[in-house]
Amino acid sequence: MHNILEEFARTNRLREVSPALKLFIGLASILVSVSSPGPVAPLLVAAAMSAAVLVLAKIPARFYARLLLIPASFAVMSIAVILFITGGGAVLVEVPGLPLAITADGANLALLLLARVFGGMCSLYFIALTTPTTEIFEILRRLRVPTVLIDLAMLTYRFIFILIEEAGQIYRSQVMRLGYSRFRESVQSFGMLAGALFIRTWESGEALVLAMDARCYDGKLGIPGKTRPLSLSALAAALLYIGAIFGISLSTGGLVLL
Amino acid sequence: MHIMEGFLPSPWWQIWFIVSLPFIVIGLYQLNKLVREKREALPLLAVAGAFVFVLSSLKLPSFNGSCSHPTGTGLGGILFGPCIAAVLGLIVLVFQAVFLAHGGITTLGANVFSMGIAGPLVAYLIYKAGTRAGANTYATVFLAAALADLTTYVVTSVQLALAFPGSVGFFGAFTAFAAIFAVTQVPLAIIEGAIIALVFKYIVQL
Amino acid sequence: MTPLLETDNVTYTYPNGPAALAGVSVRIEAGSKTAIVGPNGAGKSTLLLMLNGMLRPESGEIRFSGRPLAYDNRSLRELRRRVGFVFQNPDVQIIAPTVEADVAFGPVNLGHPPDAVRQAVHDALGYVGLRGYEKRPPHRLSGGEKKRVAIAGILAMEPSVLVFDEPTNTLDPASSEEVMELLDELASGGRTVLVSTHDVELAYRWADSIVLMEQGSVLARGPPEEIFSDHGLLASARLKPPALLDLYNELNLRGVIDRDVPPKSVLEFTDRIERAMHGRAPARSETGRIYLCDADLTGGDDLRRLVEQGAVDHVGAMGTRAKEFAGRERVLLDYTYGVIDKCILKALIGENSLIITTGGMVEHVRRRIGEYSAESGLTLAATPVGETAGHRPRREGAFE
Amino acid sequence: MTPLLETDNVTYTYPNGPAALAGVSVRIEAGSKTAIVGPNGAGKSTLLLMLNGMLRPESGEIRFSGRPLAYDNRSLRELRRRVGFVFQNPDVQIIAPTVEADVAFGPVNLGHPPDAVRQAVHDALGYVGLRGYEKRPPHRLSGGEKKRVAIAGILAMEPSVLVFDEPTNTLDPASSEEVMELLDELASGGRTVLVSTHDVELAYRWADSIVLMEQGSVLARGPPEEIFSDHGLLASARLKPPALLDLYNELNLRGVIDRDVPPKSVLEFTDRIERAMHGRAPARSETGRIYLCDADLTGGDDLRRLVEQGAVDHVGAMGTRAKEFAGRERVLLDYTYGVIDKCILKALIGENSLIITTGGMVEHVRRRIGEYSAESGLTLAATPVGETAGHRPRREGAFE
C-alpha cells in the first residue's frame, strides 16, 4: 500500500501557514520550472522546495528520498528516448553496431527536461506534503470553481480513505491465507479483491445516500470556512523567492552546459 | 500511465488543457442537471471515483508502478456517459497527483485526455459494440479493458511525440516512445483486462 | 396523554426477504429513555428507520405528536429535523472531509445562514466535547471520537427526538461509557432518547422502558426489571439476563434473599445482601460526604482548593463537559463512569468524594442521592461546592 | 518448557504515528486459552499481526516453537499456515462469491489437490456447523454465520494456533455464545487459542491467562481472577471489572463475604453467599442427576427415549455439532450457553438435566462437575447416556 502524502500534510511544521500562500508558492514554482528555457532555474526550484519540505516542514528525509524515486521509471524511459531521437550538434556517444547516437543537443534537451521534472515534482511535493486537501477545497470554493465539482471531490476524498482502509484489510486477509503467492494466484487474488471492493463500494454508496437523506440533504455541502491569517513577512519572502527564480530563469535562458 | 509534472513544455500542456476543456465543461453541465434531477447520483459517482482511485493505488501483481485504470472511469462512462466520466477522471487524477505523486498539475490536461477521455471512450464503445453483437460478455469486457489501457498508452505516446519530435519527426518519435513503453504497458493491459473480466465474473456470480 | 411517537400495527418486508416487521405497535412517551432490545435480525433497525420516514410501512401507521406521518418531501425534511437518527457505524454517517464541515452538513442543508451554522457547529462540538477538532479529517479519529462527531452532526440540527442504532457497538468500555453518559445528558436535558441494542446489561442500566423484539414482532414492553427477570421471555428473544439480575433471581429462587424490586447496581445489591444477612443495612459510625460541583458555575480555584486540602478522597466526573473542565483544572479523576453509585458506596464506608458534572445532570445526582437516603434510612446529602455567581456564562445553553 | 509463541521486547511504530508497541514481551503456552485485553488503540491488533509475520517488529524478536521468525517468503508461508488469523470484521475476510469458494481459498493456495481441498472444505464447514451452506453467497448470511465462515476458512488450513481479533464484536449474545463455544471446542481439541478483546466479561469467563495491555505496553499478565480484581490496574487500562467480580470485591470490602478465590459464575457466587450466611453450603435432601451424551457416539433413539420418558427436566447442548444433532433429533434445547453451570444449579435444587456435547468437550464437562463436587462436598456425577458403539464414524477427526 502506498503512503498517502496527505497524512504528512496534517502534521508538518508548515501546517499553520496560510494554505493560499503555500498553494501560490507551489504553483508559481511549477510554472517557472516548466517555462524555464534553461536547467538552472528548475534545479534551484528543486533545491528550494526540497529545503522547505525538509527543513521548514520537517518531513523525514528518508521518506522524501523514496518519493523522489516514484517518477523515476517514467523519467528514465522517456528521457532515454528523447536523448536518442534528438539530433543536432556534436555527436557525443555512439552505440556501436546500431544507428543510435547521443548528440549535444539531445543531451542538453534531456538535461533540461530532467531539471524541469525535478523542479516540478519537488514543487508538487511541497504542496502535497504541506497543504491538507481539505483546505484546498476551501480555496477552490473561494475561487468560484463550480460547486458540483467541489462537492463531488469532497465526497470522493472522504470515501478514498474508507475504501483504502478496507482494501488494505482485504489484502491482508488474503495474504494471511497465502494469496498472491504465485503469479496465477496473484491475478486471481487481485480480481477477487477488486470484485469485493466493488461490492463494498456499491454498499457504501447506498449507505451514503441514506445517511445524507437522514440529515435533510438538499444539495449543499460544507460551510464557508475561516481563512488563516496571511503573515506579511511570509508573503514578502514568497514574492522575493518567486521573483528571484523567475529572474534567474530569464537570465540563464540561453545557458547550455554541453 | 501518467505524464509527470514538468515534462510537457509550453505550448503543449496548455493545448491539452484546451482539448480536454470542452469535455469537462459539458460533463459539469450534465452533472449539474443530473444532480438536480437525481440527488443520489452525486454520492454514487463519488464512491465510484474513490473506487477507481483505490484500485489504481494498489500494486498489480508483478508490477511495481501503479496503472491508470481507465476502465474504472470507463465503468462510470457506461453508467453516466463519457463526459461525466471525464469529470470523474479529472478528480481522480488530481487526487493521484497530490496523494500518490502520480502525474502533475501542468500535465493534468494531457493526462485527463488520455486516461479520463480517450481510454474510457474506447472502453465504452467496445462494450456497446460487443453487447450489441451478442459476443461473449467476458471476452467483451476483457477487450474493452485491455484496449482502453492500450489506447491510453498510445495517446500518451502521441502526446509525447508531438511535444518532442526530435530530429526524426513525429512518426519516428511516436514509434520510439510507443516501443519503449510497450515493454511495460502491453503486459499491463493484458493483466488489467484479465482482472476486470474476473471482477465482472465475480459480480455476476453474486 | 398522546405519546410523542407511536407505531400502529406496522408491517414491512424487504424486497425478496422474509417479513422484517410483522405488525409492530409501540408508544414512545416524550422525555422517556426507551431501549428496543432484541437479537440481530429482530427488526430493531427497520423499526427505527421508520420513525424518521427513511422506510415507509407497507401497512399500519406511524404518528408523530399524534399526527400520521406524511411522505412528501417537505414533511419528511421537517420530520427528520425533529427526529435525529444516529447510525450504528459512524463511517457511513460522516460525510464531509472535516469534522467541522460534517457537523455543518445538517444545518447548511436546512438553509440556516452561515453565522447560525457556525454557532450550531460550535455548540454541538462543545456538547460532545470535541471542540478543537474542527479541522480534523474523520479518518484520523478514534472510534469513540467518530461516534461523537456523528452525534454532534445530529445535535446541530436540534432535534427533539434522538434515535440511536446500536450506540455502543464496537466501542470499547471507556468510549461506550462516554456515549451512554452523553445519552443520559441528552435525556436529562428534556430530549426523548430511543436506543436499539442487543446489549442487555446496557439496556438494564440505562433505560426506563424496554421494548423486547424478536423476528419482527414485539414480545414484551415494560420496565427493565420486569422484562429482564423473565428468563423464558429473554430465552425466546435469544438473549441472556443481566449478570446481576441473574444472580439475584438465583438467590431468590433458593430463598436466600427476600423477594423485592431487583437491584440495578452493585451498590443496591450490596445493600440487599447486607440487609438479608443482618436484617437491615448495618448502621455505620459515620458516613462520608459527597461534594457536588457544577462545572458551569464553579470556579476552578474552588475546585482545586477542595482537592488540594485533602477534603475529598475520590473525584468523579460525569459528562464530557465536566471531564473537560477537570482536565483543564488538572484534577485527576478516579471515576469516569457509574460515578454516583461509586461515590455513595464510598460515603457508606466513611470516605468523602466529589462529583463534577453539568447542566441537568446536577439535579439528577441530587435526586439519586436523595432516593438512596430515603430507601436506606441513612442521611446522605450532596454538598454543593462554592458556586461563584456569574462565572463563565456558557453558550451551550441552546442544548440544555 | 519453551512456550509455543513468544515475543521478546518487541517494538513497532506505524509510519507517521506514535509508538504502537513499546517493548512487549509475552509468552503463549501451547494449548492455552489466552486473552489479550485492553481498550481500543492499546496495540492488541498490532501485536497479533506480528505473530504471523504480517508486521515485522522494529526491534525485539518473536519466536515460534523457540525459533526466531524468518521473514523470507517461504518461512512466512509456513508460519501463516500454522498460525491462523481470524479478522474482527468477517466482511473483509470472506470475499469469494460463495461460502465454499471462500473456505477453499486457503487450501487452494497451499497447493492441495482438488480432492483434498474439497475434503478440507467439507470438514471445516462441518466443524463450524454450516454444512449445507456451500453454495450460498456470503453477503446474504447473518453476522454470526459470516463469522463462522471466516473461522472455517482458517480451519481449512489446519493451523495449530488460532488468533482471533475481537471475536464477538458486533455479534449479538446468541451468536457470541456460539463463537465462544467454538473457541472452547477448538481449545479442548488441543489447539492454542489466542483472543484479543476489550470485553472483560468475556475474557473473565473464557480465558485461562490474561495479558492486559494499554498504550503499547503490557500492564500485567496472569490468571483472570487476579488481573480483574485489581481495580487500579483495570482503571489504568480504561476498563471496568466484570460485574460479578465487582460485586464480590465490594462485599469483601464490607466484610460480608469471606476472602477467597473470587467466584467466576452465578453458580459459584450463589454458593458462596449461602455459605457466608449459613456457615456452609446448605445440605439438600437430594440432588438431581446430570446426564451426559456424546453426540458423536450416542444414537438418536437413546436420546429421544430419555427425553420422552420425562427423565430429564432440562436439556442443554454445547458446541455446534451437538446443537445440530439435537436439531436433527428434534430435541428442544433449554440451554445453549453456560450449560454446565446451569445444569449443576438445577441438580442442586433436585432437578434432572441432560448435556449434549461432542469430542473433547465431554471430558471438559466431567472435569467441571468433578471439580464442583470436590469443592462443595456434594456428590454430583455425570451419567453417560447409552453410547451405541460404532455409531456413525465421523470425518471431523481431522480437527480433534
TrEMBL record, chain A:
<feature type="transmembrane region" description="Helical">
    <location>
        <begin position="43"/>
        <end position="61"/>
    </location>
</feature>
<dbReference type="GO" id="GO:0006824">
    <property type="term" value="P:cobalt ion transport"/>
</dbReference>
<keyword id="KW-1003">Cell membrane</keyword>
<keyword id="KW-1133">Transmembrane helix</keyword>
<dbReference type="InterPro" id="IPR052770">
    <property type="entry name" value="Cobalt_transport_CbiQ"/>
</dbReference>
<feature type="transmembrane region" description="Helical">
    <location>
        <begin position="234"/>
        <end position="257"/>
    </location>
</feature>
<keyword id="KW-0812">Transmembrane</keyword>
<keyword id="KW-0472">Membrane</keyword>
<feature type="transmembrane region" description="Helical">
    <location>
        <begin position="20"/>
        <end position="37"/>
    </location>
</feature>
<protein>
    <submittedName>
        <fullName>Cobalt ECF transporter T component CbiQ</fullName>
    </submittedName>
</protein>
<feature type="transmembrane region" description="Helical">
    <location>
        <begin position="113"/>
        <end position="131"/>
    </location>
</feature>
<dbReference type="GO" id="GO:0043190">
    <property type="term" value="C:ATP-binding cassette (ABC) transporter complex"/>
</dbReference>
<feature type="transmembrane region" description="Helical">
    <location>
        <begin position="68"/>
        <end position="93"/>
    </location>
</feature>
<dbReference type="InterPro" id="IPR003339">
    <property type="entry name" value="ABC/ECF_trnsptr_transmembrane"/>
</dbReference>
<feature type="transmembrane region" description="Helical">
    <location>
        <begin position="143"/>
        <end position="164"/>
    </location>
</feature>
<dbReference type="InterPro" id="IPR012809">
    <property type="entry name" value="ECF_CbiQ"/>
</dbReference>
<dbReference type="Pfam" id="PF02361">
    <property type="entry name" value="CbiQ"/>
</dbReference>
From TrEMBL, chains C, D:
<dbReference type="InterPro" id="IPR027417">
    <property type="entry name" value="P-loop_NTPase"/>
</dbReference>
<keyword id="KW-1003">Cell membrane</keyword>
<dbReference type="InterPro" id="IPR005876">
    <property type="entry name" value="Co_trans_ATP-bd"/>
</dbReference>
<dbReference type="InterPro" id="IPR017871">
    <property type="entry name" value="ABC_transporter-like_CS"/>
</dbReference>
<dbReference type="GO" id="GO:0006824">
    <property type="term" value="P:cobalt ion transport"/>
</dbReference>
<comment type="similarity">
    <text>Belongs to the ABC transporter superfamily.</text>
</comment>
<keyword id="KW-0067">ATP-binding</keyword>
<dbReference type="GO" id="GO:0016887">
    <property type="term" value="F:ATP hydrolysis activity"/>
</dbReference>
<keyword id="KW-1278">Translocase</keyword>
<keyword id="KW-0813">Transport</keyword>
<dbReference type="GO" id="GO:0043190">
    <property type="term" value="C:ATP-binding cassette (ABC) transporter complex"/>
</dbReference>
<protein>
    <recommendedName>
        <fullName>ABC transporter ATP-binding protein</fullName>
    </recommendedName>
</protein>
<dbReference type="GO" id="GO:0042626">
    <property type="term" value="F:ATPase-coupled transmembrane transporter activity"/>
</dbReference>
<comment type="function">
    <text>Part of an ABC transporter complex. Responsible for energy coupling to the transport system.</text>
</comment>
<dbReference type="InterPro" id="IPR003439">
    <property type="entry name" value="ABC_transporter-like_ATP-bd"/>
</dbReference>
<feature type="domain" description="ABC transporter">
    <location>
        <begin position="5"/>
        <end position="240"/>
    </location>
</feature>
<dbReference type="InterPro" id="IPR050095">
    <property type="entry name" value="ECF_ABC_transporter_ATP-bd"/>
</dbReference>
<keyword id="KW-0547">Nucleotide-binding</keyword>
<comment type="function">
    <text>Probably part of an ABC transporter complex. Responsible for energy coupling to the transport system.</text>
</comment>
<dbReference type="InterPro" id="IPR003593">
    <property type="entry name" value="AAA+_ATPase"/>
</dbReference>
<keyword id="KW-0472">Membrane</keyword>
<dbReference type="Pfam" id="PF00005">
    <property type="entry name" value="ABC_tran"/>
</dbReference>
